[in-house]
Amino acid sequence: MKILGKYSIGLGDRFGHQGSAQLKAIIAASEKGIDITPVWNKSNREHNTIGTQPGDVRIEADSVTKSAGFSKPYFVDADHINIDTVDRFIECSDFFTIDVASYIGKKADEKDILEFLKGAEKYTGELNIAGTELSFKISKSQIRLIAEKYLFAANRAWDIFRKIEKAKGSGNFITEVSMDEVGQPQTPVELFFILKMLADENIPVQTIAPKFSGRFNKGIDYVGDPLLFAREFESDLLIIDYAVKQFGLPENLKMSIHSGSDKFSIYPLIGSIIKKSDRGIHVKTAGTTWLEEVIGLAESGGEGLDFVKEIYIKSLEKIEELCAPYADVIDIKVSSLPSKQEVSEWNSGKFSDSLTHIPGNSDYNPDMRQLIHVAYKFAASQMKDYFRLLELNEQTVSKCVYENIYYRHICRLFDIRKG
Ligand SMILES: [Zn+2]
Fold first, then answer.
1. 107 CA → ligand 1 middle, Å
2. How far is the CA of 210 from the centre of ligand 1 (A)?
3. How many A from CA of 81 to the centre of ligand 1?
4. 275 lies in the same domain as 305
């Protein structure tokens, strides 16, 4: 059976040019004693926007790992797929993020609900998580509500899983189940019963991506109380551990954090909790690399700077259309966005400082950063020019990509000190 390593990072590379720079960050971490499995992920939405095929991600992952002599495992993740979109991902992917968010809240057949309730009955009353201080009071009616909300989604996860398994064979891929792109976070008790549902369906889930409290906006820091997040995260980890033992789920089942890039205020907390409890983690960081390409072109000046200014100006004009598909994961204050006139006068330094995620830098503008995050379709619509500029300024761009993933993300998450 394919097993995902203890620590893994989802590396998105929308335009397929930064795989080497990303891998360099993984290799730098392993030289510091932190082994991280790279997982290249790209969602159906991103493929459609850019006009790429899932097979392109496989080609890139194979070629960058080969040329770096990287002999450890790596994966290609069919990110956020469902029953309608999975087909073209099956051959080239060996990691599948089964997205059940859109099925949550739809009611399963009463017969299935009753069957689930029967199996879950023994967890009513006081549920104490052995060896911890965590305990919950669980009523029958509460379990019914959870079943009514999530059982249908778990059934659909099984349909999707079986479709993949039939094509690829048992044990030949990693399964993740995601439910992050919804309005409401799941509570630890909900997570517990969701894991029971997945276990009842015999889905060997190795990573689970719940929605947490607070906001995980794309490409910027966590919005919420970091200490409350830490408490929730720790409870969820204990629940996962307990569920693994109770339901016979894969022992390496771990948390996957979606929209996980740039959450600098909670990385040290996540890092210390997983270290203390000896748990693994998967963090998806997809869009942050595209932002570094924009920053790298801005720093390159000349035509590169003009190109990214134009992307920003176009995105200002199409802001509503760009943001609509990302409603749950971006939050832009329009009044904080610089105007077209202002930006057209900016030099390289001002543009790149506005976008670069350095908290405390007075020029850093998280609203502009979120807007550019979702504006990649404007680069896709001038792909030939965009690729020419990326290649022309490769050194500057790949340095930005590497430094962002390694210093700002990996070092903070895994407490790697400079030097
Ligand atoms: Zn996600």
1. 23
2. 9
3. 10
4. no
Contact 343, 316 (CB under 8 A): no
**DSSP state at residue 198:** H
Domain count, the chain: 2
SS3 96: strand
Annotate 298-337 with DSSP letters as a single string. Answer: HHH-HHHHHHHHHHHHHHHHTHHHHHGGGTTT----GGGS
d(CA 407, CA 34): 13
Name the one residue in this structure whose structure tokens are 């939405």: 45
Ligand 1 mean position to 48 CA, how many Å? 16
> What is the Å distance from ligand 1's center to 211 Cα?
9
Q: Does residue 147 lie in a domain region?
A: no
The residue written with tokens 């000046």 in the block is 301
CA of residue 117 to ligand 1 center, whole Å: 29
> Do 28 and 100 fall within a single domain?
yes
Separation of CA 119 and ligand 1 centre (Å): 30
Ligand 1 geometric centre to CA of 213 (Å): 15
Distance 238 CA to ligand 1 centre (A): 22
Shared-domain flag, residues 204 and 327: no
Same domain, 98 and 190: yes
Of 287, 314, 329, the last residue of a domain is 287
- Residue 70's domain is classified under what CATH number? 3.20.20.70
Distance between Cα 80 and ligand 1 center (Å): 7
What is the whole-number distance in angstroms between the Cα of residue 182 and the centre of ligand 1? 10
Residues 166 and 306 in one domain: no
Q: Give me the tens of pLDDT residue by residue for the chain, a chain 419 residues long.
A: 999 999 999 999 999 999 999 999 999 999 999 999 999 999 999 999 999 999 999 999 999 999 999 999 999 999 999 999 999 999 999 999 999 999 999 999 999 999 999 999 999 999 888 778 889 999 999 999 999 999 999 999 999 999 999 999 999 999 999 998 888 899 999 999 999 999 999 999 999 999 999 999 999 999 999 999 999 999 999 999 999 999 999 999 999 999 999 999 999 999 999 999 999 999 999 889 999 999 999 999 999 999 999 999 999 999 999 999 888 889 999 999 999 999 999 999 999 999 999 999 999 999 999 999 999 999 999 999 999 999 999 999 999 999 999 999 999 999 998 76
Q: For residues 217 and 180, is the Cβ–Cβ distance under 8 A?
A: no
Question: Global pTM?
Answer: 0.95
* Cα(345) to centroid(ligand 1), Å: 36
